[in-house]
Amino acid sequence: MKFKKICIFLITVNSLYSIPVVNQREQNISLSNKDVVANSKYLLENSMRDLNYADYITDSLLLYGLLWLNIGYNLPFRGDSISLITDQTGAQFTERLLLEPFANDRKEVVFDTINDSSGNTILDTYGAPMLFPNGAFYAKNVIEPFAFYSYGLYLRAKNYHPALYIGMMFSLSVLYEFTVRPFFMEASFEQLFKNPIAGITASIIFDELSSYLLTTPYLAAHVFAYILNPFKLLPTARVKPLLFFDYYKQSASLQVILEL
């Protein structure tokens, strides 16, 4: 409950510092066309504003808080492999900090053998045991990369500079592996790089496609754009230029593509 309240507080502060205050001349809210146009102008100006110090601070705190939720996402898949440290001296925490190249005989099992009703391992035609991915496999290759993908979508919606965006994604991965995971499970050298790389790649591609669809006059395309990156619906989202799809926007017509 406390964590939820902290997240709501950070989002509120982020929004208050990002949205300009509109002075109302009248106490009663007017829905005239003139006022709608004026308010739309303020919203447009806000969406084109540069990020400020409140954005950097609250976004960093919010994303770091969300890193702790990754443990909850992993729990249904990893099960018994997640355990809170009990050693008060810190030796267990230090041991979990060691990454695979520097740890002895540390290898996470991501495949289990398939057994028949008698408990015997089923072999394939070559005599090797048949394997299937277990929960840890999905946690490492789906759950955690998807979490970082969502962080990337949020930062892209806020229009962070690409260099700062990439730096923050790798910083989040370092913080996750060395300040969050050791409390519950062993740090992972593989995830240290795979999570941010997968998150950066996927979030840029889908956010770029979302931004491109928003430049079209089609309502269905706009709906799909917000599905690809729902963080664009936040009042703190920023308007930004296309990184890669601008060439296609100028050289191709979406209407022609749809007709094909």
Summarize the structure.
This protein has 260 residues and is mainly alpha-helical. The chain has helices at 2-18, 33-47, 53-78, 91-97, 135-157, 162-180, 189-214, 219-228, 246-251, 254-259, and strands spanning 111-113, 131-133. The model is unreliable at 19-31 and 254-260 (pLDDT under 50).
Structural account:
With 260 residues, the protein is mostly helical. The chain has one domain. It is built from ten helices and two strands; from the N terminus they run ααααββαααααα. Strands 1-2 form a two-stranded antiparallel sheet. α1 (2-18) runs antiparallel to α3 and α6 packs antiparallel against α7 (189-214). Residues 19-31 and 254-260 have low confidence and may be disordered.
What does the secondary structure layout of this molecule look like, with pairings?
Blueprint: H1 2-18, H2 33-47, H3 53-78, H4 91-97, E1 111-113, E2 131-133, H5 135-157, H6 162-180, H7 189-214, H8 219-228, H9 246-251, H10 254-259
Antiparallel strand pairs: 1-2
Helix pairs in contact: 1-3, 3-5, 3-6, 5-7, 6-7, 7-8
